[in-house]
């Protein structure tokens, strides 16, 4: 019977980065990990890891203390370290899709140093698996790992996060569907559009942001950054209105003087 014939396996890669901070324009990668794996497209089962790479990178800018507290990487550990871009590209090009837990930020950082990744379709395990619908209070990786009893290893280190995330995606949900199946069926993740810009997180789900890695892209702003942008826009509007009012007053005064 046709149903007894195993479907041909396919290849995908999961990628994760740790950085110096939040901005994809100003901050830099300090660690990158990528794992190429084989999966069954019918069941969504992750079959085996075929290749992997983990590398450190010395940034040209300081590493803030908060970033070091998050991932444990500091300047002394990174001195003289450089990412093997050829190796990363080789693994990525063998994959049909690239996946990360918050694809917006990972794509934002990686595409700056390895532009070819923009030619590969991406999926986001944070935003394209319906975690909230399935009853989870957070879609942050560390909390999801805790919810599923998965050992995070050295949390917030790139390869540990990759390995743990793959274990999570290979887990079956309450309905018997593996989480990775949702990503197989999802459309390619869009960057720079409405789909890649999360709405403000509801208060009951605000904890999801607490365990997100300290790396998001410019289009994936945190609540504080959104508030800051809103405040800046408001100030700009007030300044513009003040200038218009001042010009109107000066014109009225000029007309009054001319009339006299």
Helix and strand arrangement:
Elements: E1 10-19, E2 29-39, E3 46-56, H1 65-71, H2 75-78, H3 85-93, E4 97-100, H4 103-113, E5 122-124, H5 141-147, H6 158-169, H7 179-185, H8 223-259
Parallel strand pairs: 1-4, 4-5
Antiparallel strand pairs: 1-2, 2-3
Describe this structure in words.
This protein has 260 residues and is an alpha/beta fold. It folds into 2 domains: 2-221, Ribonuclease H-like superfamily/Ribonuclease H (Nucleotidyltransferase, domain 5); 222-260. It is built from 8 helices and 5 strands. The protein has a 5-stranded mixed sheet with strand order 3-2-1-4-5, sandwiched between helices. α4 links the parallel β4 and β5 (122-124). Mean pLDDT is 81; it is low at 193-239.
């Amino acid at each position: 019977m046709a149903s007894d014939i195993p479907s041909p396996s396919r290849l995908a890669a999961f990628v994760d980065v740790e950085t110096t901070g939040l901005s994809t324009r100003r901050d830099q990668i300090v660690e990158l990990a990528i794992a190429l794996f084989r999966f069954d497209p019918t069941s969504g089962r992750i079959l085996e890891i075929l290749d992997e790479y983990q590398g450190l990178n010395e940034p040209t800018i300081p590493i803030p203390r908060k970033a070091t507290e998050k991932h444990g990487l500091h300047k002394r550990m990174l001195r003289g370290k450089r990412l093997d871009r050829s190796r990363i590209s080789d693994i990525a090009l063998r994959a049909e899709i690239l996946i990360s837990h918050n694809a917006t930020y990972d794509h934002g950082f990686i595409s700056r140093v390895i532009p070819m990744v923009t030619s590969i379709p991406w999926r986001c395990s944070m935003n394209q698996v319906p975690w909230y619908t399935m009853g989870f209070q957070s879609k942050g990786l560390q909390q999801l790992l805790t919810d599923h009893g998965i050992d995070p290893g050295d949390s917030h280190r790139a390869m540990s996060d990759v390995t743990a995330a793959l274990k999570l995606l290979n887990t079956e949900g309450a309905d018997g569907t593996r989480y990775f199946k949702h990503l197989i069926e999802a459309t390619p993740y869009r960057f720079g559009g409405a789909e890649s810009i999360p709405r403000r997180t509801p208060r009951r789900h605000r904890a999801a942001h607490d365990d997100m890695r300290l790396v998001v892209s410019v289009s994936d702003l945190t609540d504080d950054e959104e508030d800051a942008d809103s405040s800046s826009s408001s100030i700009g509007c007030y300044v513009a209105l003040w200038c218009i009012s001042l010009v109107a007053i000066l014109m009225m005064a000029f007309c009054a003087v001319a009339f006299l």
